[in-house]
Amino acid sequence: MEQFILNIIHRPEMVPEYAEKVTGQGKAEDIGRKALLTESLDIFKIQQQCAHENGLKTTIQMTYASLFNDEAVSLAKEHHEKYGDEIALSLLGLPCEQFREKYKTKDFCIWMFSMEDKKAIVRDVFGKFYERFGFYPESTGSYYMDADLINFIKEEYPGVKCAVATCWEEGPKAYHTCNNSWYTFMDGGPWAPWIPSKQNTHAPAANAEEDSGIVAIPHLSRDLLACYDGNGSNFGTHPQNVLRGMIYDTKTWEYPYLYNLIDQYRSLAKYNNGYAYNMMFVGPGWMNKMGRWEAPYELLKKSYWDGCAYYGKLKKEGKLTDMTMSEFADYYRAKKTYTEPECALWRDILYGSKKQLFWYCDPYMRAGVSMDQGGAVFDLRPYAAKLEWKVGIGTPHVMDASYPFLIQEKYRAGYFTHYAGEGTVRSAKICHNGEEADLCLCRTKAHFSQEGGNRILTLDPVEIVFSDLKVKIQTVITFAEGSGTIGIKRNVLEMSDLNAEVTINEYMVGCYGTTEYSEDMTSLTLGVDGEIIPYEYKCRELSADGADEVWCKLPPINTRVSMTCEGRDKSGYIREGYAFSPMFTLGYTGKLHEKEVFTTWLKLQKAD
């Protein structure tokens, strides 16, 4: 039986992000302004009302500011008793008069503080929570929580079992759509709940030794296609995201996209052993009485009510189970194993493009496959490295918490790129008599299946037309659970000339980084079996007939990526990039007749 789980999380933020400037128009900043505090609490009450009147319970994440407000504390206690809401603690909502006076800063992102300050703030906030409620919370959260922060919280407060821990694809794309002013990057993490490793929050734990001790949930459930292509803050199951994206009828105030997005999340149960998840994480700043996102307050309120009403309808129909965060953590621990992946075969429900993506996430990788590009891998994160990536003041990464990529089509071009260089992608070229066709140019559709521990994508066949030959090829992509490998099989189903032969070139163009800007590649080493090329931007190549393995070692991200092959007349090769195209290429070539198969495996490992 399929089960759709919902977390609704509210926070009485008291001093909501953005809201002070709106509420106090034309006045000097005053985060203690009574009108601001009153309006914020009123909105929190309305949000709670929207959930409760639709039969839904919530998790109330108390902010530091709200812990100084008697009415907010009293409301949390009342709603816990009356509706079964969980009283939790958020590490968002730090700014208030008391916080600024104590810490002498306007910083508000907990993961960006120094480790010394993180510890002091956590002890302060958790201590204040205990003072007001007489117990410690079982759930906490922020936009992002780095591994050192999670490990410290779990050590100091072992009862914490669940946390909001990252925001899906909140990196350079979000930065650019905030007028280059949102200095916090956290690309490369899971889009659905996971158990973070002790080494890196983004990378799921592979076993009990790596387990940080909490279940992590994402900050918002987002459109896994539109969010990747554009600004994620416009495409989420948070109703005000949809308004910000202007994805509604301005005359009727209806938003079918919101319901379609929720339904697509429900459909993910088909790919995850009957389980699907959705969440809303909402602060009062989104429902400001002055209006937001070119929408009046009345529409902001209506959209939130309608969103809760849709969830309530699904619950009444037996299609949804609402849980608090701590309840969900217990459910998840009982439901999932460490190596069980999260899968999402996702289609465009916004632009009508018929575009289809597949997302895969387990303790060894996060990968994206585009059927618009013939099954090319367009995003690849090497979780196998469990890269320790310290974040905050006093570390090498003050604001960049992203997990590095090996392939990323938005920041490193992908297939459709500048004539002089190459973009990162994992694809194949079919060649015949001097003509060449890349499967990136062949749109197709995928069908999901599961065989034991393998998650399999079987793509519709594509036809490649040369001047004197037609070739029909089918691609089957296999993600092997617990192995860090992606197997890609190309099967020649038909040829217009039974005696013809084509050459196949299976390749991966890669690099590493977290932004658009190239990193120093000189520490990389490329190899074909035991022969190596140290990366020096010299555009060199090396190949070997019958090669067992082609590989690249990337010390800056402690990753080794390799390809192996099974096919006729196989030859492995590596290619060093150059300064204008600072990539590396791994590949295999071979020959194919009709009914023959060429199979490659891409593998991710920790380098040391």
How would you characterize this protein structure?
There is one protein chain. This protein is of the alpha+beta class. The radius of gyration is 25 Å and the shape is globular. Helices cover 22% and strands 30% of the residues. The protein has twelve helices and 29 strands. Strands 16, 17, 18, 19, 20, 22, 23, 25, 26 and 29 form a ten-stranded antiparallel β-sheet that branches. It has a six-stranded antiparallel β-sheet with strand order 15-14-21-28-27-24, with no helix packed on it. Strands 1, 2, 3, 7 and 8 form a five-stranded parallel β-sheet that branches.
Q: How much helicity do the residues have?
A: 10-25%
Helical run tally: 12
How many runs of DSSP E, i.e. beta strands?
29
Beta-sheet strand percentage?
Answer: 25-35%
Main sheet overview: 10 strands, antiparallel
Average pLDDT works out at 94
Give the termini separation.
Answer: 43 Å
- Global Rg: 25 Å
> Low-confidence stretches at least 5 residues in length (pLDDT < 50)?
none
Structural class: alpha+beta
Anisotropy-based shape: globular
